[in-house]
Amino acid sequence: MGIIISTPWRATERTLDTPAGDVREIDRRISDYLDKIKSDATTASIFRVRDAHLAGRPKPPIDMTADIRARVPEEMYPPVLVADTDDGFDDFDGGYGQGHIVSQAFRDAVESLDKDVHQFVPIEIRRKDGGLHDKRPFYILRVTRLLDTINLDESPQLQRAGGNLKNEPVTERTMFHLGDTTFAVHADRIAGMGLWRDVRSPMHVLVSQHLIDLIKARGLTGWRARSTFTEL
Fold first, then answer.
1. pTM for the full predicted model
2. Which of the two residues, 96 and 56, has the higher pLDDT score?
3. Taking all residues of the chain, what is their mean pLDDT, rounded to a whole number?
4. Are 176 and 160 in contact (CB under 8 A)?
5. Which strand ranges, in their side-by-side order, compose the sheet holding 80-83?
6. 36-45, 88-97, 160-169, 181-190: which range is least confident on average?
7. Residues 6+ apart with CB under 8 A from 19
8. Which residues contact 217 (CB under 8 A, 6 or more apart)?
9. Which are the contacts of 199, defined by CB distance < 8 A and separation ≥ 6?
C-alpha cells in the first residue's frame, strides 16, 4: 500500500526561526509569491476560456493549481533556521512554510525514483545551543508533481469536500477528503514514481508503495501514514 505521509504527534511542538527572528515575514513573502503565481495563471486561463467560447472551440480547464507546481526561488528561503529545543531531527521532520524538512537520506530515496522532479532547497538547521544536527544536510522539500490519480470507481467511500454535494456530477475539479481514510489510485498513472500531490486533494503528499519500501529498507525516521491507498 501507498500512503499519505505525515509526522507523528509530538507532546511538545518544536518551532523554528531565523537568527534575526524574521521567519514569519519570510514565510509571508513566499506565500505572497505563490499567491501571485496562482492568480496570474488563473486569470490567464479564464481569458483562454473566454476566447475559446467566442471562437466556438471547446473550453480549456481553468488553471487553479499553478502555485502547487511552481518552484520558489531559493534565495527567498532563509539559509539558517534555529530550533527552540536541542532535540534531534528526523529524516522526515514535518512542515516548514511551503514545504517539508527532510534529510539527505530522505532526498536520496525520493530521487532514486523522482530524479529532478521536486524542489529541494538546502537549509542549515541548528539546535537551541547552536550545534548542528547529525543528520545534516537538510532540505526544504516542495512536492511539485500534481496528478489526477484517484480511482473514484474503487473509492466509493470518499467524501466530497465543500459541503453536501452528493447530487452534483463529478467533474475534473471535484475535490475529496483523503485524510484519515483508505482509497485507491490508478496504478498506471503513477508507475515508477515516488511522490506526488493529487488534484482532488492537493494539500496532501502521496507516497507510492515502491518509495515506502525504500524508506523502510533504509530505516528512515519521522514519518507515519495518515491514510493508505491501494494501487489498482
1. 0.92
2. 56
3. 92
4. yes
5. 16-17, 80-83, 119-126, 138-142, 99-103, 92-96
6. 160-169
7. 80, 82
8. none
9. 65, 146, 147, 148, 172
